[in-house]
Amino acid sequence: MTSQRLTQSGRICSPCVTLGEDCEIDEGVLLGYRTGRQIAAQELIIAAGACLRSGTVIYVGSRIGRNFQTGHNVTIREENTIGDDVSIWANSVVDYGCRIGDRVKIHSNIYVAQFTVIEDDVFMAPGVIVANDIHPGCAHSYECMRGPTLRRGARIGANVTLLPYVTIGEYALIGAGSVVTEDIPAKAVAYGNPARVRKTLSDLTCVTGITDVPYPDA
After folding, report:
1. Which residue of 104, 131, 195, 211 is surrounded by the most CB atoms within 10 Å?
2. Cβ atoms of 46 and 58 closer than 8 Å
């Protein structure tokens, strides 16, 4: 599907949109939506093999890798860098200025706040909320605004809240409903409000008996 055909159907909002080959774009997708912020680079680049479902809105000024997939009603703001083989499912928002690695899975109803870093192979279950403002309402809050950092392979359970500045270590597992207020080390299992380290991945067993080792990377 060519950019010219997309323009005729009203899906491209800016001339600064570059699409790779073999992209599948539903009706009702908006690409290159204008931002009210002043940004240096306006071009939106989406590499080959994207599958964008209806209701997806992607702003100007981001670079997105190969085989990108969205569910319905996904919003991706400006100045984001997104790697290859990333999926973002229905009703999720990635705010501006984030860095997302390869093979990341962001499930439904998730909010990723500005200036969040998500490394390769991270999994985020439905309902995760990411915060980035340590003093909401402060006149200087933007100057110190920063989201959390999720290291390679981290797994975040359903309805978890991640507070600003925290780091989730490589392959760590955060239990459903937790509120993470401080750093979690690599390969730790943490849960609760506030989340605390309870065990490590190597301590876990599969309750169904299907496998003895649910996380081989432990």
Report:
1. 195
2. yes
